[in-house]
């Protein structure tokens, strides 16, 4: 039931076609100059990998090969860590906060100047709609750099005890593919502001914007070795985080890999932050502003194809409202446009990889096999590339795998509840604890719910709102440590 067939007796006509037909409005890709191959960024220069190995990065919307990316070997990782160490000892840790902040401001301004190029490249390599990369990802990336630039000369006022907090040294940073550039900014900006140098490994399917960021570091005249970018897959990441000369490990990715990393650094003096998976509840009470809540639920699970760690992947809707809410949600879902990520009218782009698509298909199949009701609006999916229609499952209980496991795709599990206490119990009945959403007219209920919910972030009458001043992070299997805000700095100082 993946390609828009109707289930549960809904009319089979697409509301999209009943409403408007939008002419294609593709963003031009000519602004981006993609090289046929990329080296590693070490000590301020692009260098060839010692082993000479590389892999292809593709456009998930078309399966077209975009470029060859280098696979960093153990020797390359060692070279990058050494370069970061030298830059830390000789330059960056000696520089005043005021001087460091000038570099960060410069980077932030170049990010803004080159924002269109970055947005197009992000959409090409990741598959996310240009509307999101242009209006959400890239502006936030610049905002995180501006925000942490402001802290670099004010660390002694950040409330971390008396005196100026000291940097840790070299940070090993590993990030996922869902928000490639944004996750890079969450890692690099606070690390540099606090006086650390970094070696960052982007995800293997989305290296290109990190490599463009390396160019931006050159353009900003950042001293060589302060930022190093090594590309590669899991083995490169493992080598990096277990390197003997890194002082700090910052990882964002799956809970499984997070566990392996926690084990590999146990017994060392490395400081660690882990930002892992989630299975957030988006809780709608019957006194909520309903249409606003429908928008929030749609944004909560279909933004970025649902490839969002804090996605509202479990809709908890009050029983008295459930039928009305579901009808409105389906009507709204039928207007979502799935297709070309570079088209400015696209709401849902491509799934990032064939592996991720297989995982979404598998878990959706399990949902059906376990008896949940599956529904997706009719929508034409492109022939090439990796696609999955926005999908909901009704009649889901806590026993279903789709209610417990992170699907990381545009798939929503709908669960009902009767009382606030039952909503809290169901929302907290998960090994994760990253985020939650509450939709209600009552302020007192929002405060009560926020106190009861075991989630790092609780949004009220909104969802997926990010701000550099606000800490973000999880409880339980969603990891530990916080990124963003003053808390994000704390992870990079002693
Ligand atoms: P993943 O764990 O497979 O990969 C993440 C990164 O780790 C990649 O760069 C990968 O190459 C690298 N890696 C893989 N194995 C490694 C190992 N053994 N040692 C070191 N590095 C290794 O995750 P993914 O599929 O890329 O990303 C999706 C996951 O990320 C989801 O679970 C999502 O919830 C999570 N995520 C969390 C947050 C957050 O802030 N909590 C944000 C975004 C994504």
Task: Give a description of the structure.
This protein is 39% helix and 16% strand. The protein is of the alpha/beta class and 494 residues long. It folds into 2 domains: 261 residues, Aldehyde Dehydrogenase, Chain A, domain 1; 187 residues, Aldehyde Dehydrogenase, Chain A, domain 2. The strands form 4 sheets. A 7-stranded mixed beta sheet has the order 13-14-15-12-11-16-17, sandwiched between helices. β4 and β5 form a beta hairpin. α10 crosses α11. The protein is globular. Bound molecules: nicotinamide-adenine-dinucleotide. Nicotinamide-adenine-dinucleotide (NAD) binds next to α8 and α9. The site of nicotinamide-adenine-dinucleotide has 30 residues, from α8 and α9.
Brief description of this entry?
By secondary structure, the chain is of the alpha/beta class.
Helical residue percent band: 25-40%
Largest sheet: 7 strands, mixed
In what order do the strands lie side by side in the largest sheet? 13-14-15-12-11-16-17
Strand content: 15-25%
CATH superfamily caption of the largest domain: Aldehyde Dehydrogenase, Chain A, domain 1
Structural class: alpha/beta
Overall number of domains: 2
Which key features would you list for this structure?
disordered N terminus, Aldehyde Dehydrogenase, Chain A, domain 2, globular, alpha/beta, six-stranded mixed beta sheet, seven-stranded mixed beta sheet, 16 helices, binds nicotinamide-adenine-dinucleotide, Aldehyde Dehydrogenase, Chain A, domain 1, 494 residues
């Amino acid at each position: 039931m993946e390609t828009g067939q109707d289930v549960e007796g809904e009319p089979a006509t697409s509301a999209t076609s009943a409403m408007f037909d939008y002419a294609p409005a593709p963003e031009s890709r000519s602004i981006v100059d993609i090289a046929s191959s990329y080296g590693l960024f070490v000590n301020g220069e692009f260098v060839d990998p010692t082993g000479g190995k590389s892999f292809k990065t593709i456009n998930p919307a078309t399966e077209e090969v975009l470029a060859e990316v280098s696979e960093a070997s153990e020797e390359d990782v060692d070279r990058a860590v050494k370069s970061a160490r030298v830059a830390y000892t000789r330059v960056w840790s000696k520089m005043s906060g005021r001087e460091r902040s000038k570099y960060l401001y410069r980077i932030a301004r170049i990010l803004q100047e080159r924002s269109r190029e970055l947005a197009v490249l992000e959409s090409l390599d990741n598959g996310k709609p240009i509307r999101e990369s242009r209006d959400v990802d890239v502006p936030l990336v610049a905002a995180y750099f501006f925000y942490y630039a402001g802290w670099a000369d004010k660390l002694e006022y950040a409330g971390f005890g008396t005196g100026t907090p000291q940097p840790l040294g070299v940070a090993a940073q590993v990030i996922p593919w869902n928000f490639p550039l944004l996750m890079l900014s969450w890692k690099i900006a606070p690390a540099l502001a606090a006086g650390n140098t970094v070696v960052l490994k982007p995800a293997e399917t989305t290296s290109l914007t990190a490599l463009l960021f390396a160019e931006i570091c050159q353009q900003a005249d950042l001293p060589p070795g302060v930022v190093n970018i090594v590309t590669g897959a899991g083995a490169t990441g493992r080598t990096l985080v277990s390197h003997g000369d890194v002082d700090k490990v910052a990882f964002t990715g799956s809970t499984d890999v997070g566990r392996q990393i926690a084990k590999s650094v146990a017994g060392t003096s490395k400081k660690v932050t882990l930002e892992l998976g989630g299975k957030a509840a988006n809780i709608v009470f019957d006194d909520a502003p309903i249409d606003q809540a429908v928008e929030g639920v749609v944004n909560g699970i279909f933004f970025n194809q649902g490839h969002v760690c804090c996605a509202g992947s479990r809709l908890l809707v009050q029983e008295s409202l459930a039928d009305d809410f579901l009808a409105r949600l389906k009507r709204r879902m039928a207007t979502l446009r799935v297709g070309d990520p570079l088209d400015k009218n696209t709401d849902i782009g491509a799934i990032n990889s064939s592996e991720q698509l297989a995982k979404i298909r598998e878990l959706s199949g399990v949902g059906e096999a376990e008896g949940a009701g599956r529904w997706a609006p009719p929508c034409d999916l492109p022939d090439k590339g990796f696609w999955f229609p926005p999908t909901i499952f009704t009649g889901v209980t806590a026993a279903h795998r789709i209610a417990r496991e992170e699907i990381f795709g545009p798939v929503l599990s709908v669960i009902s509840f009767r009382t606030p206490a039952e909503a809290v119990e169901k929302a907290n009945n998960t090994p994760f604890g990253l985020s939650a959403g509450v939709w209600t007219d009552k302020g007192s209920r929002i405060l009560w719910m926020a106190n009861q919910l075991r989630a790092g972030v609780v949004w009220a009458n909104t969802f997926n709102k990010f701000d550099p001043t606000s800490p973000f992070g999880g409880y339980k299997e969603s990891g530990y440590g916080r990124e963003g805000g003053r808390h994000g700095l704390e992870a990079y100082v002693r």
